[in-house]
Amino acid sequence: MTYRSRWAPAAMAAGAALLVATAVIACGAQPEPDEGADTVRSLSATPSAARPTTEVPVNDGALPRRDSPIAPVKMTIEAIGVTATVVPTGVDPRTGDFDVPPSVDRVGWYRFGPGLDASAGSTVIAGHVDSASQGRGAFFRLRQLSDGDLITVTGDDGKHRRYTVVGREEYRKSRIPLDRYFARDGKPRLSLITCGGPFDQATRHYRDNIVVTAVPTLSGA
């Protein structure tokens, strides 16, 4: 499955691998209803511009940020039994698609978007739902996540960051609002993407994409 956006050069191909017939039924049956659509939209809204000021700017004394963003290297989602390695990915130069890791037990972070240290925007991680040759993928049960479920992402700085699920949505691939999920503005958030919906035997692809949105969990929560 592919989808392209005028905002980004990437087209998502998460979970495009072929599927054995028995697993088709398991993935395609009884789709979960969407949750938190209004919340997700509010996260992507661009904040209003700050009022101009004539005050002298004050340096807070913090050390300069590192040049490269903090990359996610591991993800754990206890609610659906996921422990997966996260690898940086970009765009497949042959197809222009999002270059999801070929091993279905791994997931890919879109390295041209925000990292874990970003103060705004959507950090995108995509993965396969399954494969005919490899079986269930890391995101096989992604559609089962619900509001309040926790996600732990470890960065290449060694820190563990927790996120709370606030939304789960399903779109036809031709209708997914990529500008929202690949945005660099709005509140910081995590966007997890995989395949879903019925499996098209003719094209050997799923019809839809599942998107789970999570926000940083407040300290002590």
Automatic annotation (TrEMBL):
Which segments carry the region annotation Disordered? Answer: 32-67
Top-rank taxon of the source lineage equals: Bacteria
Q: Which GO terms describe its molecular function?
A: hydrolase activity
List the keywords (alphabetical).
Hydrolase, Signal
**One Pfam family in the UniProt entry:** Sortase
Residue ranges crossing the lipid bilayer per the database entry: none
Q: Which InterPro entries match?
A: Sortase, Sortase_dom-sf, Sortase_F
Signal peptide residue numbers: 1-26
Q: Tell me the protein's name.
A: Sortase family protein
Lineage of origin: Bacteria, Bacillati, Actinomycetota, Actinomycetes, Micromonosporales
